[in-house]
Every structure is written in C-alpha cells, then in structure tokens.
Amino acid sequence: MISGRAAGALSRRLRLGGGTSIVGLVAQRLYPDIIRHLAAQLEHGSVLVTGTNGKTTTSGFLAAILRDAGLRVWRNREGANLLRGVAGALVVRALPSGNLRRAGQAISVFEIDEAVMPQAVRLLEPRAAVFVNLFRDQLDRYGEVESVAALWRQMVKGLPETTTLVLNADDPTTASLGELARGPVLYFGLEDLTLDLSGQDGQGTAGTYQAVDSRSCVRCGSDYRYSARFYSHMGHYQCPHCGLERPAPAVRALQVRQDTFDRLRVTVETPTQLGEIVIPLPGLYNVYNALAAIAVAQALGISWEPIVSGIEQFKPAFGRGERVQVAGRTLRLLLAKNPTGLNEVLRTLFSEGTPRHILFVLNDNIADGRDVSWIWDVDFERAQGLTASLTVAGTRAFDLALRLKYAGFAPEEMTIIPSTPLRALEELIGSQPRGRKGRERGRARHQQYQPGAGAAKTSIQASPVAEEGATSPRETATPFPGYGLATALERAIEQTPVGETLFIVPTYTGLLELHRELERRGLTPHYWEGRD
Question: Where does the record place the region Disordered (predicted)?
C-alpha cells in the first residue's frame, strides 16, 4: 500500500503524470491479489461499466446518482481503466494495515477497458456489469468488433447469478449478451421515433454516411433490418431469417427534446416511474449514457429523486463536453476517437446549421490507435460551409486536412499546424547555399506553402540553420509562426472572436496534451485533482 501511494506521489511531484496508474502497478507487483482483497471490503460491492464510447460519462452519471442516494462512491474518475488503474483507485483509499478506509456505505463504480473486462469481472465480482455499446475502435489493438464481442460472450457465460447485466437494447451486439446471462438482465433504449435518421430532412437519405459496425445477426449471420435507426447500428432491428429482434427495454426514453446546445429534456419510463429528466450535456449519445446509469440505479434499488438530481447536477469529465474560459472565449472539449463517435460529435455541432469555430486534433499515438484510416468513414461533409474558422492539428494533421479537402473544404479555409516540422522542409532549408542568395532562394521556395500561394495556411517552423552573416540561428527560420499543439490552440483562439465558443475535437492523446497545455496556463486544474 505504502509503496504504491509513494510512487503515485512521486509521479505527481516530478510532473510525470497524475500517478493514477503507477500506484496500482506497484501495488499489484508487490501483492498480485490486491484488487480482490480490497474490493471485497466494500459494503455495497462494485459496478463495472464498459463499452467503446461513453464509459466515463456513464460512470460519472451513476456516481452522481449514488452519492445523492447517500452512498460513498469510489471510482477511477481519471479514466485509468486498465487493472492497474482500478488497483490504484482502491489503494489510495486504503490504510497501511491493508484495510479500506470507510468501507461502510461504500460502493465502487469503475469504467473498464473493453479488452480488460473479463479479468476485471473475475477479480471484482460486480453486482452489475454495464455494456453501453460496441463500435469499431483502435483496430490495431482490439481487432474487428467481432473479436471483442466474442470475448464478451465468453465472459458473460461465466458470470454468477448475483450479477445483473445492464445492456443497450438498441445495439444488437451488446443486447445479444442477455441470452447468455445466468442472472438478471435489464435493457435500456430509445423509443422516440422522431429521432429515426431515415425520416429526417424529408428525403429518407439521412444517415447514409453512418459508419455501421454491426450488420449481421449473431445467430445466423443474416443482415438485420431496421424499422428505426438512430445512428450507426443503433436502433430498432430484426433478423428476417431467424427472427432475432431488439429486446423490449425496461428503461426507455419516450421523448427527447433539445432546449439548448447543452440541455436535453428526456421523458424516461422505468418499471416504477415515468418522469422528465434534464441532461446537461449535448448529443444523443449522452441520452444513452444517462439511460444506462438510470438502469443501473434501478437494478440497485435507488429511488427516483436521486436519479433525477444526480443527472441534472452532473458536471462533465474532462474532454467530455468540458468548458474552459480563456481570454473572453469559451473552449468546449469534445473527445472523438473513432468514426461513430466523431460522426455523432459532428451531428451535435452542425445539425442546426450554425457556423462553429473548430479545432480538430488527430493523433496516431499508441493510445489513439496507429491506423487513422477511419477518418474516411466520418461524415465531414456535414460540416462543409459551416466552419467560421477551422484549425487542424496533431501528429496526422495533414492526413486530416486531405480528408477535409475531399469533403469540400478549400485549402485556404484551413489553418494546418502539424506537431513537428516536416522533414522535407527541414532538408529543403538545409540544402540551400549559405549566404544572402541562399536565404532568399530558401524563402522563395517556402512561399508555395503560404496562404497566398493557394495552399492551406500551414504553420511550420524549420530547424535553425547556421548561415554566413546571420546574427542568430533564428534569423534563418521560416516565416511560419511555429508548430505543435500549443501553437494550434493559440491560433484557433485568435480566430475565435471574444464572446464566442471554440469547439475542440481531439483524439485521446490530443485531449491529454490539450489538458496539459491548459493546466500549464492555469486555466484548469490537473485532471487527477478532482474529488469524488
């Protein structure tokens, strides 16, 4: 216990991170069964939440509900959803004796990585296991959707009768897990048919660009038929060959109305209650997240009042609709890490036809997935003509800029700021003859990348090159103002008028990098400094 907590404190002191994983990593190394030992002491047990999109928000909704119901809630709120993150969340709440502090009236709510869920279930023996959805994500790590689905099916077969499954009825893959459960199953889903994509715009063509990740029946392999589709493969479906169909949800959204960008009014029906709940977040995907949390609360016997108050007073986790004020502007961070997630963010931003100031950040680090070909399955065409300003950044900024060009964005509409200088431009500068003529020739060659040359407004700063007669290395740099995410953020803020909102849509590591930059500027606290 002491070693793990010391490692976390050292990590934070040295600014190597939040110490949210190293605590558990050290503790597990010294005591491999630490998770089982500590979790068994929780009076009200554990709830596990998994899925491709929405784990953090769903677990946040549920934690808020349970707190309002009078329980002490412990969770991995920082998003460290591997086993070491779970171990760390428990270890920091333990005494040197090996016992949890204040285990009475306590319950844990852990978001769990999709691939780690089978191990987490074995160690934590949860009261409820929540499966929010399953979409294509990080193919180089997870493989195709069916690989994760097969893992889940095998796991569900071994769950004890004491574990309640909470499943998305509108997602064929997650809903099918209910047939394998030995214990209770509770489904949630949408019933508001005005949200059906095929009936929108009066043309029947809405949603044809949706990235559909689950087409075939899990029983017989035939294609599903949909009577209503809300997005991707989420909707009301039936297999025409074997008859498998969407199960009837016990927790249902009968009507969804948007008051403002940040305010959804949802009429919810449960087996014991019918009432209206205000969800203080944008996007249809957050309706599903709220329904999942409500379903778990029902399974745990929580009354209606804390369900309503918990959701309506919910504060978004970092990057999931979070607001930050800077220089008279509002920054809104909307994480999008796969085609379905980004499609829904774009639908949320542009469905009303309002022009937005946008900063896209596309990274291809390990935590993002090295393969970024998924951007070609995203409906960027929806945003064409609706960007008041557009900045593109990240390690794969040029890949995204090319995709946007094919979506109809003119190069001069984009400010492209890569994470690092292009090697070709560095070599171009280095190859120029020394002296004044060489400098002039190099600058002339670089003009082709300037906005006036018909190319995108690209911000690139090459490595300094020592030249004859130069008073300093910086005298030979390109005329571009820089590169990297800090520069991209500054440029995007400058292009957003005072009083307006800049919407930042990053992939996962881009979100972390943005948060570090906002922390450095003193605009937001460290993400691990929040309190449950």
Answer: 432-482
